[in-house]
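Quick one: examine this chain and its backbone structure tokens and tell me how the chain folds. Here goes:
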Amino acid sequence: MTPSIQRAALLLSIAIGLVVGLWAAAWPEAFYDSFPGFGRSWVAVDGPFNEHLIRDVGALYLALAGASVASAWTRDTRVAGAAWTIFGVLHLAYHLGHLADMAATDVVGNVVTLGLSLLVGVALLVPVRHHVVEVVR
């Protein structure tokens, strides 16, 4: 893993956590009705609105963003990587089993975005390879 790829993964994890987290925590009904935006609705197809559950999802994403910010501060991405990877595996696994009520476009979008989120976590787990220049005499 190169430092620039890991930095990009860290910034992306912060962005995902903040956007999803703030939307769900601050405006749970709007999140339920219209996530991910662009005229699509991925949450509402999965059952009735539950404000408590949606706000908890928002808090979870904000906590993940916080772990990523802490990783940026400490320059050690492993803890945030572990958190995003565990969440990403479980989140993707659930959704892979619940795609039947979605349009084909939404299935593709759901799997791609959740897969990307999981890959961001994995990228934060992989150690950075620093190029070592060996001087030959």
